[in-house]
Amino acid sequence: MNQQRLMQVLLAPQISEKATYVADKNEQVIFRVVPDATKPEIKAAVELLFKVSVESVQISNVKSKQKRSGRRLGIRKGWKKAFVNLKPGQEINFVDGGAA
């Protein structure tokens, strides 16, 4: 795979209450990814950037939402998120800026 493409696949880690619960319980990390990313690309990108071993990847599309501001009606963009399951003993620590 093209290394330049792999550097652009991951957009940001998804930090939320649900994401921290999933991380503690299942040794998973949740990332926002580009809409056309595939499972093998995501796996390779995480392994390249964070130097960890990835067991599996699940992908979920988050649908767009309608939001209202006064009378105006707008639409939030939809996005794609990836649940990356790490091998036992592996961990990504975002506070220190990488793998632990």
Strand order of the largest sheet: 1-2-6-3
Question: What is the straight-line distance between the termini?
Answer: 26 Å
Overall morphology: globular
What is the overall number of helices? 3
CATH topology: Alpha-Beta Plaits
SSE sequence, one letter per element: HEHEHEEEEEE
Largest sheet: 4 strands, antiparallel
Mean pLDDT: 89
Low-confidence spans: none
CATH level-4 homologous superfamily: RRM (RNA recognition motif) domain
Helix content: 25-40%
Under the CATH scheme, which architecture would be assigned? Answer: 2-Layer Sandwich
Q: Strand portion, in percent?
A: 35-45%
Number of strands: 8
CATH class: Alpha Beta
Radius of gyration based on Cα positions: 15 Å
- Integer count of domains: 1
Structural class: alpha+beta
List keywords for this structure.
two-stranded antiparallel sheet, Alpha-Beta Plaits, alpha+beta, 100 residues, four-stranded antiparallel sheet
Structure description:
The protein is α+β, with helices and mostly antiparallel strands and 100 residues long. The chain has one domain: Alpha-Beta Plaits (2-Layer Sandwich). Helices cover 29% and strands 39% of the residues. The chain is built from three helices and eight strands, in the order αβαβαββββββ. The strands form three sheets. The chain has a four-stranded antiparallel sheet. A two-stranded antiparallel sheet has the order 4-5. It is globular, with a radius of gyration of 15 Å. It starts with a helix and ends with a strand.
